[in-house]
Write a structure and sequence with these properties.
about 140 residues, six-stranded mixed β-sheet, 3 helices, about 25% helix, globular
Length: about 140
């Protein structure tokens, strides 16, 4: 009996949830969900620190630095994930995309909300490439609270 579409959808949603948890400070997840060598493609200004990140350990370091510079930084998935995975051997490969919301406090302590979308390329169950686009420094949230 093969893997069902629902099982693949659940697997894709779970890896995206773990990606989000990693960004919220669960840095050990980098070694579990990221391929040993991967590519990050961040389109927004101010994300140049990610251009040369290629290993799980370095990603965890840069995420920790990212949090150090942003008070109360928190990410959460929003909207419905788009999951296009296929079973390959004993694992799965394909794409998962989902909108997210990032919140943090500005220099005066006021809340700031930004939206974006991350698309994850997954090969053999591990993230090998990420495309990330956000509303940027002067953007806004896609969703209204």
């Amino acid at each position: 009996m093969g893997v069902t579409r629902e099982e693949l959808r659940q697997a894709g949603t779970e890896v995206y949830d773990r990606w989000t948890a990693m960004w919220n400070g669960e840095l050990a997840l980098a070694e579990e969900i990221m391929a040993p060598d991967f590519t990050l493609r961040y389109a927004q200004a101010g994300t140049e620190a990610f251009d040369e990140v290629r290993t799980p350990g370095r990603l965890a370091e840069v995420i920790a630095q990212w949090h150090a510079g942003r008070t109360e930084l928190r990410f959460e998935a929003e909207g419905v994930p788009v999951v296009d995975l296929e079973p390959v051997g004993g694992s799965w490969s394909g794409l998962v995309a989902r909108p997210y919301r990032a919140t943090f406090a500005d220099a005066e302590g006021a809340p700031v909300v930004r939206s974006g979308t991350d698309t994850l390329r997954i090969v053999d169950g591990l993230i090998t490439e990420v495309w990330s686009v956000s509303s940027g420094a002067h953007g806004r949230s896609f969703y209204r609270s």
